[in-house]
Amino acid sequence: MGVGANALTVAGFVLGLGAAWAIATQAYGWGLVLLLASRLFDGLDGAVARLTRPTDAGGFLDITLDFLFYAAIPLAFAVADPSAHALPAAVLLATFVGTGSSFLAFAALAEKRGLTDTALPGKSLYFLGGLTEATETIAVFAAMCLWPQHFAVLAYGFAALCALTTAMRIRWGFVRLSGFSE
Questions:
Q1: What distance in Å separates the CA atoms of residue 162 and residue 146, rounded to the nearest whole number?
Q2: 170 to each of 117, 126, 139, 175, how far by Cα in Å?
């Protein structure tokens, strides 16, 4: 169809920002629709890249815009109802820093050491697994849109899983990289 992977990445991100805006204005149904459309585009960009020509620039764009999208949704809930949602959103965002930094730090060092991801070949980065991956995050974001009155419980619960994922990644990454000391 002539639509490149990077265009799909950017379109997915713009839809994700639209979802955040809708959530911030308490239009949670529209937020959910735009959120799901955004992630559909995010899934398509990788498929298109693999069918054409994946690039490091495209991989960089994809992961960077994904992380910005993931941060925008809890922030939008905090804006929608600061008195009820600000603290749980902040806790969730803090744990997102843990999951994101452990993921990206390992990916950078895996690349430096020439490690390859045999579980997910063809990805731009080495994917270090965990309990809270993209599918789980989108499911929780969808639940938050469906039941915004339960945002705090969902945010704290998912933050606990993110903290556990971070701890698992730190342990696994440290052990894995220790075998490659210089």
A1: 21
A2: 17, 15, 24, 8
Q: What's the sign of the alpha-carbon dihedral 18, 19, 25, 27?
A: positive
Enter the pTM of the model: 0.89
Q: What is the pLDDT of residues 116-166, one digit of tens each?
A: 665 555 555 556 678 888 899 999 999 999 999 999 999 999 999 999 999
User: Could you give the maximum distance between any two Cα atoms of the chain, in Å?
Assistant: 53
Looking at the structure of the chain, the number of domains it has is 1
Domain of 129, CATH number, reads 1.20.120.1760
* pLDDT tens per residue, range 40-87: 999 998 888 888 888 889 989 999 999 999 999 999 999 999 999 999
CA 12 to chain centre: 13
Rg (C-alpha) for the chain, rounded Å, is 17
Which domain does 111 fall in, by range? 5-178
Q: How far is CA 71 from CA 77, 89, 126, in A?
A: 11, 9, 21
